[in-house]
């Protein structure tokens, strides 16, 4: 099973780039193009929030049209740049797994890896939370999974990443949240967006994973006390590949044209074993 993950599309009304300069809509199209070029194609695509930049119906129309080009199931969750009810109204007809009311969270049991999407949004705030009701809902979904390999996906990371500009707007969780995750070793990953960078760390006995955005990235700034700024570093998508006996392996695939794929032609002075077939 191959799970593709893209994040932080930040769709904008036509002619109105994000932050005045980031042309996010063509970047969404390039991300979709990249997925369509993959061989083999992913079995499904996760979109981990900030689908829109301002939660406007026009922005969701752009997202809807872009994601409709994907022939495989696509699962979306909201981020802080989304508006829960507008997202539901604009996308639910093509995304019937989204609940009719309440939080936009759900579980998907159609694949070898169970997928649980969490809604971390606090309306009107940058940061997110898993409140008591959402934590209880997650506990029920995990219990009904009966140990099946599981990937949780959510917009706001529920862990600190050691970058001050990012850690001021995390996902607030209770101490019980980490205990709940740790009590379910079948959770292969907690997949997130929001920070617009590739980040991995150990979290509650599993792996916390943050994927870059499809357009702008947050500039890496490890100095204490600095605020987030953005930079046009290469966007990327993640491919989480599940193989029985191996588990879930996460690959990061830059989005864009980086030239042809070439064979390794070894120099005669190469110290390894001579081979007729070029090796990496
Ligand atoms: Fe974002
Ligand atoms: Fe965000």
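Sequence proposed for the structure above (280 residues):
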């Amino acid at each position: 099973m191959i799970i593709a993950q893209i994040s932080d599309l930040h769709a904008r009304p036509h002619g109105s780039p994000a932050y005045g300069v980031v042309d996010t809509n063509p970047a969404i199209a390039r991300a979709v193009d990249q997925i369509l070029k993959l061989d083999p194609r992913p079995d499904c695509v996760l979109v981990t929030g900030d689908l829109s930049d301002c939660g406007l119906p026009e922005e969701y129309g752009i997202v809807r049209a872009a994601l409709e080009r994907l022939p495989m199931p696509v699962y979306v969750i909201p981020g802080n740049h989304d508006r829960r009810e507008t997202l539901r109204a604009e996308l639910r007809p093509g995304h019937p797994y989204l609940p009719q009311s309440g939080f936009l969270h759900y579980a998907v049991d159609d694949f070898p890896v169970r997928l649980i999407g969490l809604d971390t949004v606090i309306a009107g705030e940058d940061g997110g939370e898993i409140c008591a009701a959402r934590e209880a809902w997650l506990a029920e979904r995990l219990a009904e999974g009966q140990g099946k390999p599981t990937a949780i996906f959510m917009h706001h990371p529920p862990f600190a990443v050691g970058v001050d500009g990012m850690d001021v707007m995390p996902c607030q969780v209770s101490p019980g949240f980490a205990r709940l995750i740790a009590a379910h070793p079948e959770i292969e990953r907690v997949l997130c967006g929001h920070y617009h960078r590739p980040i991995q760390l150990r979290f509650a006995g599993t792996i916390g994973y943050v994927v870059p955005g499809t357009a702008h990235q947050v500039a890496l700034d490890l100095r204490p006390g600095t605020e987030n700024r953005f930079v046009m570093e290469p966007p990327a998508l993640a491919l989480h590949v599940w193989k029985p006996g191996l588990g879930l392996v996460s690959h990061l695939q830059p989005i864009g044209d980086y030239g042809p794929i070439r064979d390794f032609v070894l120099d005669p002075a190469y110290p390894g074993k001579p081979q007729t077939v070029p090796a990496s």
